[in-house]
Amino acid sequence: MIIARDEVIALLNEFYLNGIYSLKVSSPLLKEIYRFELGNEPRLNAMTTDEYSEKYDSLRLRCEPEVVEEIPRPGEEYRWIFQSSGVVKPENYSGIVRELENEADRDFMRGDKPLYIGFDTNVLANRFPAIMPKVKCGFCLHTGVLDELHSKFIEKKIRRTKAQVLKRHGFKEVFNQPPLKARKFRVGAVEYRKLMRREYTDEIQGNPGDLNIVKDYQSYQKSRNVDVLLVSEDNIFVEIANDHRIKAVHVKQAKDIPKRLNPTWQELTELLYTTAIAYGVIKIGSVLMFGVWRGKTKEDWNSERLKLEFMNGKLAAEMKRSFRILKACGS
Q1: What is the per-residue pLDDT for 328?
Q2: CA 142 to mean position of chain CA atoms
């Protein structure tokens, strides 16, 4: 069964309605990644970075290098699944919220300029637009950023020999799909395209490189008589922006993963999506969820689709029924 990211909530609902409240999420080699309890306020138990590092090091000693390459490393890759889903917020998130809300508080009758927000490469790859607070503004994207994202995943694919090795370790069919190091950047390109579909989004044509991008934003700000606010994880990018009289927000990655978390149902849905993308395939209770699979198309990526395989026939039948109802209701 192929579903969209925002339909994962239906899977969680089916678990809940069937009295399955406690669920473990695991990958073929790493085994348990985290577990969660469903309820009015879901609870999540995760590994800290140090705990995850111990499991990863043990795996690294017993597995082929091409297999280990497809397991998120401790540090940024492990944090990515939690932070890019919004379950763990950036270290300075409350300050970011205040700054974005203050900047978006505009009174056009008083002569305030429209606000347009732009993003650098890493914040798109880390799905910041998906977790940022909703503020009234436009967006302005730069093709140089898209080019930088493209350079990280275009023509990077898992070849047949490696796919066969991975298959022996439970990864099934990943032939011709992007490897782990490329997948987050493909996700970043998806975020770019999602923003481009919004009504108040402009696009600047230009070349990659921090200085080129900032200079083009400076020209855009001046020619359109608007205010631009850039969002970046890179101190140098922020410094360049400020030197060119453009305001910039610096996003600081979380340093660690708390052992106990209280995500919303929506954040839990996002977490399962990012976990499936990072690990390729995960097991949730009696369900296999694939973030990559042989034959996954560009449209599957852009529509943020996942593939489900059920080991419980009753749950599979009820899920199919739920999706028929959702589609009939136009959801």
Answers
A1: 64
A2: 20
Place of tokens 């922006």: 241
Q: In sequence order, what DSSP letters do the residues of 93-105 get, joined into one string?
A: HHHHHHHHHHHH-
The whole-number pLDDT of residue 330 equals 58
What topology is assigned to 93-250 in CATH? Rossmann fold (3.40.50)
d(CA 231, CA 229): 7
pLDDT for position 304: 97
- Amino acid identity of 304? E
With 0-12 / 13-18 / 19 or more C-beta atoms within 10 angstroms meaning exposed / middle / buried, residue 96 is buried
Residue 66 CB-half CA count within 13 A: 15
The pLDDT assigned to 171 comes to 85
Task: Find all residues with CB under 8 Å of 230, minimum gap 6, and list them.
Answer: 117, 118, 119, 120, 214, 217, 237, 238, 241, 246, 247, 248, 249
17, two tokens: 């309605």
pLDDT at 331: 52
Give the residue from 87, 188, 92, 174 showing the smallest Cα distance to 145.
188
Please report, for the chain, the start and end positions of each structural domain, with discontinuous segments joined by +: 2-88+255-328, 93-250
Please, which residues have CB within 8 angstroms of residue 93's CB and are 6 or more apart in sequence? none
Please, what are the averages of pLDDT over each run of 10 residues along the chain (331 residues)?
A: 92 91 93 95 95 93 91 94 96 95 92 95 96 93 98 92 90 89 96 95 97 97 97 96 96 94 96 97 95 94 95 81 70 52
DSSP three-state, residue 284: strand
Residue 63: CB atoms within 10 Å: 16
Q: Rounded to 5 degrees, what angle do the CA atoms 194, 219, 119 make?
A: 30
Cα separation, 54 vs 34, in Å, equals 15
From its phi and psi, is residue 74 left (phi > 0), alpha (psi between -120 and 50) or beta? beta
Is 59 exposed, middle or buried (CB count within 10 Å of its CB: 0-12, 13-18, 19+)? middle
Tell me the CA end-to-end span of the chain in Å, nearest whole number.
Answer: 17
